[in-house]
Amino acid sequence: MSDFIVNIIHRPEMVPEYAEKVTGHGKEEDIGRTALLTESLDIFKYQQETAHKNGLKTTIQMTYASLFNEEAIQIAKEHHEKYGDEISLSLLGLPCTEFREKYKTKDFCIWMFSMEDKKRIVDDVFGKFHDTFGFYPESTGSYYMDADLTNYIKEKYPMVKCAVATCWEEGPKAYHTCNNSWYTFMDGGPWNPWIPSKQNTHAPAANEAEDSGIVAIPHLSRDLLACYDGNGSNFGTHPQNVLRGMIYDTETWDFPYLFNLIDQYRDLEKYNNGYAYNMMFVGPAWLNKMGRWEAPYELLKKSYEEGMAYYGNLKKEGKLIDMTMAEFADYYREKKTYEEPECALWRDILYGSDKQLFWYCDPYMRVCVNMDQGGAIVDLRPYAAKLEWPVGIGTKHVTDASYPFLIQEKYRAGYFTHYAGEGTIRSAKLKYKGEEVDLCLCRTKAHFTKEGKTRILTLDPVEIEFYDLTVTLQSVISFEEGSSDIKIERKILNMSNPDAEVEINEYMVACYGTTEYSEDMTGITLACGQETLSYEYKCREMEKEGAAEVSAVIPPIETKVSMKASNGEAVGYVKEGYAFSPMFTLGYTKNLKDKEEFATWLRLEKAN
């Protein structure tokens, strides 16, 4: 029996982001404008009515501004009693006349305030909520909630059990598509619910001691391929995303992509022990009467109604369970264990390609495997470090809440690179008589299986053609629950010349960072067996036959990454980069004959 859980979250955001400028028609800014407040509340009422008409209960996340509006408060109370909706509290929607006068700022992202102001605002908003309803909320949220903020809330308001805590892949890609004006970065987190660690919101807790005490859910369920390749704001199960991305028939106003995306989330139960999740987190700004994203109001309204109807019909058919956030937190705690991974074998449903990505997330790593590049690892975040990363005014990271990567093909080139240098990637090369082929050039498909506590990705065999030799090779990638290892096996299934011998080079090119811009690599220590070198951009190399391990320790992100090989005859090596190519490389080479196999392991650890 599989469960498909949906959270529908609405917020009476009395002063929606961006909407004042639209409603004001060029007048001087006035966030207390009556027309703005009236229209926003009307949209919230319409959203609630649409959900209830389709038999769906919601979580009403009251904003600070709405706590000063008697009608919004009364609606929340009535819908809680009549429909079982949860009355929750959002840390979005802070801007209003009362907030601006009290805090003397136009900032509105709770995680970007100083820690002192975060505490003041939380106590203010939670106190106002309690004065209004007579109890404290069981759930809260924002676009992002940093660990210090979450820890404070849980300590002061222990009844909080669920929070919207990150917006998937909202980093440089989103920044660039907002004309370099969206100064908030939060790449590198989970795409589906998780239990955040006390040290870092993005990194899931590995055990009870690390448990922050809440279940986190993402802000929107994104397309795990289109969003990764492009701007996430265009690809998600929020109708606004689909319209913003112009992913609809301009004549019929139909948008099958939205329903295909919901269905692909339903499909994830195959990889997650019969459990799938989806969410819609919707403020009122995008449904204003003047239209939005080049779409008229009538289309905005149609998209919302049909989206809700799709969820409603699934519920009627017994294929969907609608829950409030607090209900879901209880469900998740019963359903999942700390070390159980979240997996997604994701296919392109938008562009008509055969592209596949596999996403894996557990307390030790977040990994993306790209089948269009032969099963190369194209994104790797070392959660094992549980990197403490304070965010906001007064910290080193005022705007950048992203979890650092070791590999990120979009920001650090990947396989297809400039005329010089290398990009970050984990792949393999085959060499024969002076010819060399990288598996990144060999498109394939993957098949998911689970054996005990190991998730296995078996790739279709690929044919590699040299001048006078054809090699058929298969890759198998395994993730053992709780191990912090990635095992990669290469199997030579056939050679056109059974007596031939090829060299395989298993390699990882890596660096660290959160954006496209290079960080200072000095201080990194590379090791090949017992030999070490300190990174100085000198393009040096070390190799050793039978090396038990090759590794790199990266102090700025408190991470050790290492590789080991299955066969003692393999040659381990490390390479230092140079200023134009500020990477490092770990790897093993081995000669293989027909029907032979070679396995390597990539491991992530916290470096003290």
How would you describe this protein?
α5 packs parallel to α6. This protein is α+β, with helices and mostly antiparallel strands and 608 residues long. It contains twelve helices and 29 strands.
Q: Look at the helices and sheets and give the structural class.
A: alpha+beta
Number of strands: 29
Uncertain regions: pLDDT < 50 for 5+ in a row?
none
CA-CA gap between termini: 44 Å
Biggest sheet, in brief? Answer: 10 strands, antiparallel
Count of alpha and pi helical runs: 12
Helical content (DSSP H or I, runs of 4+):
10-25%
Q: Rg, please?
A: 25 Å
Molecular shape? globular
Q: Mean pLDDT score, rounded?
A: 94
**Approximately what portion of the residues adopt beta-strand conformation?**
25-35%
